[in-house]
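re: ur question from yesterday

yeah so i grabbed the chain u mentioned. its 459 aa long if i counted rite. heres the sequnce exactly as i have it in my notes:
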Amino acid sequence: MPIRLFESQSREVRPLQPSHADGVFRFYNCGPTVYAPAHIGNFRTFVVNDVIRRLLELEFGADKVKHVRNLTDVDDKTIKRARDEKRPLAEITQRLTAKFHADCAALNCLPPHVEPTATGHIAEQVNMIDVLLQKGNAYRAADGSVYFKVSSFPGYGRLSRVKERELQLGSALAGKSQAADADEKEDGSDFALWKAWKPDDGDVKWDGPAGAAAGRPGWHIECSAMSKKHLGETIDLHTGGVDLLFPHHENEIAQSECCNGVTFSRHWYHSEHLLVDGKKMSKSLGNLYTLDDLVAKGVSPMALRYALLAGHPRKQLNFTLDSLHAAEKALATLRAYRATLPASGGDPATFAPFFAAMEDDLNTPAALGALFTVVNRGPAGVDAASFDRALFALGLNLAAPTTPKTEAPAEVKAIAERRWAAKQAKDFATADALRKEIAATGWTMLDRKDGYSLEKAKG
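ran it thru and got these structure tokens back, copy pasting raw so excuse formatting
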């Protein structure tokens, strides 16, 4: 059965097939903006994209898949970070790109075949903007910026159904950046293709399109230009988080199809948000985790990858630290099972239910269930080669090192035991006092349904 994924524009589950004569499947996914370390919500999307890549390689062959993931290394956030640190933009973005690559490697994500940067493709972006100006799909503003004229593209909104929802300028989906540029635009729905230089930009600027001021590209044109350069005018699959559906992906369609005159992407796929303890991640709530944050708590990157795949990618996933404990146990079970298997001689059909779930709209929870059904039946009729093929599809590297957990000193454990007993007795005043006593030692006590854990406090 071919891989079938939900298609965001048609709202239907459709098969994935290459459309070009060379038989190569062209796959683009939006990469990070390298202004800060990526958080686990970002990595949910990147891990999902990695699984799609792996399934495509298993179906079409590794040499018949071309995967491009961009790096946004110039925008308001990267420029602000460079300004705040008083360092060159390239120094900031190169350091954070290296961090992103290290995290991806730890999570066993395959590197893309091409990883273009926005700053490395200024000429391609300027060329596209010039074409849009010539065709009447864009206009120059008084300050030398260039905007896309949304009214010039009748198909605008077909991906996100934005017109059906009658979103107005300044709405949460439209974003603050659109509102900030409102004075320069002919219409509130228009978006920036090129931003004229401002003093806050420092030395970050390039020559602009014909008749425009020196400045920098808008965010949306970056992906259109890089995708066209490395995959051609029509691609087979474009993916990203659901937060990119509008306005980013909607704007990509508009500018690409107006410039090139052909369909931009044949298939769109979006993964849903990650919640933490039932809430949206934010620094103010203290629930925004990076991979380093979790490793410091003794969590292995493979446990995080497993936990991120435990929910269906098109449904919100509620991440908890308890889910990581469950993931570590599941991985230990898989390692022990793998050690019992012969190298070959098994029946590959044993894993048919697993791959059927994976190929049916990337149903990773059902696939994990099918995998453990095999494990629970025992090793009879199963070989390591077939088992490893299933693990490859999930990207689970059982040989990856686990992260040793720092043990709390005996005196801290003793206080924790007293606090747990007080809490069970509903003596909350004593429990709160003992929690503070634990915190004073540089440790944190985290309660779970079935007990507690002690972790070294940050900093």
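noticed a couple things. The radius of gyration is 25 Å. also Residues 166-180 have pLDDT under 50 and may be disordered.
anyway ttyl
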